[in-house]
Amino acid sequence: MGFCKGWNFKWVIFYFSLLLMEAVKGSYDPESLGVFFHDHANKELEKPRTGTLYNISLPANFSGMEVSVVRIRSGTFWARGVNFSFFNIPPRIVPDPYAKRLAIVYENLGNWSSYYYNVTGYSLVAPVVGFMVYDSSNSSAVGIQKLNFTIRGDPITVRFPQVELKGKNVTAKCVKFGAGGTVKLKNMTKPNVCTTEGQGHFTIVIPSPPKKERCILWWIFGFGIGLLGLILLSLVLLGIITFVRRIRIEKMERKSEKGVAFDTFWIGGSKMPSASMIRTQPTLENDYNP
Ligand SMILES: *[C@@H]1O[C@H](CO)[C@@H](O)[C@H](O)[C@H]1NC(C)=O
Ligand SMILES: *[C@@H]1O[C@H](CO)[C@@H](O)[C@H](O)[C@H]1NC(C)=O
Ligand SMILES: *[C@@H]1O[C@H](CO)[C@@H](O)[C@H](O)[C@H]1NC(C)=O
Ligand SMILES: *[C@@H]1O[C@H](CO)[C@@H](O)[C@H](O)[C@H]1NC(C)=O
Ligand SMILES: *[C@@H]1O[C@H](CO)[C@@H](O)[C@H](O)[C@H]1NC(C)=O
Ligand SMILES: *[C@@H]1O[C@H](CO)[C@@H](O)[C@H](O)[C@H]1NC(C)=O
Ligand SMILES: *[C@@H]1O[C@H](CO)[C@@H](O)[C@H](O)[C@H]1NC(C)=O
Ligand SMILES: *[C@@H]1O[C@H](CO)[C@@H](O)[C@H](O)[C@H]1NC(C)=O
Ligand SMILES: *[C@@H]1O[C@H](CO)[C@@H](O)[C@H](O)[C@H]1NC(C)=O
């Protein structure tokens, strides 16, 4: 108890539920969420006007997340850039491969952020926001084909809403979650602002206190010791049970010996305990006597 201050039963339950959450973690897959948003936006978007941002309505159980889409001509994209959602996309960016028209899908995971994204050793202090670019040339909606782009001017900036650090003396960092589960940390140059050269998901993190993790380690350690103890205890118990059983058998044997002795006393006239008789038999039959 001494090594984890404030530890009590509710924390045990808490960590067990953490373990349980870990087990069902598969249901919060960011990649499939992105695919769902893309498909959903393609279905929901009707006759969008170029250069206008459209909010996409999501099913009720996604409440707390926000998805919006804008379609834009490549020429405009190059000449003026796009400022929507949390993203400031400056001019002089070229889609790669070239497309006549683009669609940008913006996401804000809101209070769901930490369900889908985490950084080991850090905790999220801003929502996870993201943007993806698609080739929208042949579509009246978002389109299917994802696009890369090349930045010839300034990088893209991500402006987060006021991040509350609750008076903690910590340095916040920018995080980019890229394709294939890559995580990149970067120092923040301006408060609440991150910069990027490519699309993906972004957030701000602060180092999380290592105390809890040490506590978890202690618990894993303690669990191992406990398991070992349990095994030892069951071995000892097994030993005791065998011992007791043997004693009981010996007692029974002795009882039956007495019974036999009693019988032989009356019948044979001499006392010949069966057990020792069997044991001494080989020496009697053997010629060799030391
Ligand atoms: C889209 O949603 C955001 C956040 O809920 C809201 O601020 C904005 O006004 C909405 N825009 C439109 C065009 O509905
Ligand atoms: C909402 O429900 C659907 C199926 O009913 C499920 O696939 C989806 O993951 C749920 N959304 C969230 C945010 O869990
Ligand atoms: C996020 O907030 C909405 C209400 O704004 C709520 O319906 C939803 O359950 C919340 N999601 C989580 C994961 O807490
Ligand atoms: C985007 O915002 C920047 C500065 O915040 C501004 O200089 C630029 O003109 C804006 N671009 C558009 C297309 O509104
Ligand atoms: C953190 O994210 C990684 C990859 O996205 C995942 O494998 C891991 O289970 C997550 N951990 C927690 C505690 O959510
Ligand atoms: C769009 O359509 C044109 C002509 O129909 C075709 O050449 C081009 O490959 C299509 N682009 C995409 C991204 O499907
Ligand atoms: C975008 O670039 C990445 C790496 O730079 C590459 O793996 C990916 O295939 C590219 N996607 C497209 C649609 O060109
Ligand atoms: C914050 O912590 C650093 C060392 O980690 C220290 O040098 C600095 O004075 C602290 N600032 C405040 C405002 O406490
Ligand atoms: C990031 O900031 C930390 C301290 O705030 C500093 O030690 C480190 O060198 C910085 N890293 C980069 C790449 O600037």
UniProtKB/TrEMBL annotation:
Residues 1-26 form the signal peptide. The keyword Transmembrane helix applies. It comes from the Eukaryota. The keyword Transferase does not apply. GO terms for cellular component: membrane. Keywords: Membrane, Signal, Transmembrane, Transmembrane helix. The chain crosses the membrane at residues 216-244. Pfam families: DUF1191. This is DUF1191 domain-containing protein. It comes from Quillaja saponaria (Soap bark tree).
